[in-house]
Write a structure and sequence with these properties.
Layout lengths: L1 H21 L4 H6 L21 E6 H5 L4 H11 L4 H9 L1 E8 L9 E7 L4 H13 L7 E6 L2 E6 L2 E6 L3 E6 H11 L11 H6 L1 H4 L5 E6 L2 H13 L10 E8 L3 E9 L3 H24 L10 E5 L2 E9 H16 L7
Antiparallel strand pairs: 1-2, 1-8, 2-3, 3-7, 4-5, 5-6, 6-7, 8-9, 9-10, 10-12, 11-12
Length: 337
């Protein structure tokens, strides 16, 4: 009896050992296993492809905490065609917004916007509807595509996708697809590492400014600005060249700086002198019109081939300017993108 019991124990032990051995992970089995998926990115810059001609980055948290948040929401409704659900998503649940544009091709203007915050799957449809309304694709049917781990919604030439729980991308379909590929592991060049941000110093300015804009103004924009600038005696070609715009918010007010890379140091110096000589006259006219003395604190100078124009305004100055704009916003009966 005792020998039988020992034999049973031995058989059970051998069976267990054999079972463990058959399920053991070996180097050969590891080699055939699929590689683990990398986590989806949470940095908005990680999904923007290189090659854009202009980009603007907005610290929404800083704007939301400023004394001018309500005015910005009002402006968004009028000029950005924002409905209440769009406004809540953009102002209340977004931390940073980045918009990039590429040179026109085949009559279209490729563009991509990336929002960082906290989003649900339903927000993809919300931002698609908002973008499609601006691009006149609002009546097109909605289609759906799956790209790897990411679902993309399309409506006409517009597209949108949610990347993880913290990024929303929207824009023209080709740019959204490029962003999705980057998010899913593509090694394509990214805008953050490209020449546009690095050569202009824009990347270094991102942490300290609420708004950073960099790019080259289109010919149409330069012509439109030239008419207004020429009417007040300013150089018509002020916006020609690569522009870096910075907006900084502080407890004292707002500081704005524009840096424009001109064709040569001589052109930069000549333009700065022209602007500086006109500021006194324009400041006097502004005071007679009852506007704040913002222009009195504006300085224009040249630093090599870079034209620098800087101004500062207190929050009270901004409120005064806002009050002068209220009638314009109140008269806007429909959205005007």
């Amino acid at each position: 009896m005792r020998l039988t019991f020992i034999a049973v124990i031995a058989l059970l032990t051998a069976a267990c050992a054999g079972s463990s051995s058959s399920g053991e992970t070996t180097p050969e089995k590891l080699a055939s296993a699929p590689p683990p998926s990398l986590p989806l990115p949470t940095d908005p810059w990680a999904v923007i492809p290189d090659g854009a001609s202009s980009v603007v980055s907005v610290d929404v948290v800083a704007l939301r905490g400023s004394p001018h948040a309500d005015f910005l929401k009002q402006w968004g409704r009028a000029a950005g065609c924002l409905r209440p659900e769009h406004e809540a998503l953009l102002f209340d649940r977004t931390e940073r917004a980045i918009a990039a544009a590429w040179p026109e091709k085949e009559g279209s203007a490729p563009a991509l916007a990336v929002l960082k915050g906290a989003y649900t799957e339903g927000d993809t449809q919300t931002v698609l509807d908002a973008y499609a309304a601006i691009t006149r694709d609002g009546r097109a049917p909605v289609g759906e595509e799956q790209h790897g781990r990411i679902r993309v919604l399309k409506r006409g030439a517009a597209a949108a996708a949610r990347i993880g729980d913290s990024l929303l991308v929207l824009g023209t379909a080709s740019e959204v697809q490029s962003a999705v590929l980057l998010a899913d592991g593509s090694k394509a060049p990214r805008l953050y590492d490209g020449e546009l941000l690095t050569s202009t110093g824009a990347r270094d300015e991102l942490p300290a400014n609420a708004i950073v804009l960099v790019g080259v103004a289109s010919e149409t924009m330069q012509k439109r600005a030239g008419k207004s600038l020429g009417a007040v005696g300013m150089p018509r070609d002020l916006l020609s060249g690569t522009l870096l715009g910075l907006v900084k918010l502080s407890s004292d007010g707002v500081q704005v700086e524009a840096r424009v890379r001109k064709a040569s140091p001589e052109v930069a110096a000549s333009t700065a002198n022209t602007i500086q000589s006109k500021l006194g006259q324009l400041s006097l006219l502004a005071r007679l019109a009852g506007l704040p003395r913002v222009l009195e604190q504006t300085q224009a100078r040249a630093n090599g081939d870079v034209l620098q124009v800087a101004l500062s305004a207190s929050h009270a100055d901004i409120v005064a300017l806002r009050e002068r704009m209220q009638d314009v916003l109140a008269d806007t009966s429909a959205c005007t993108p």
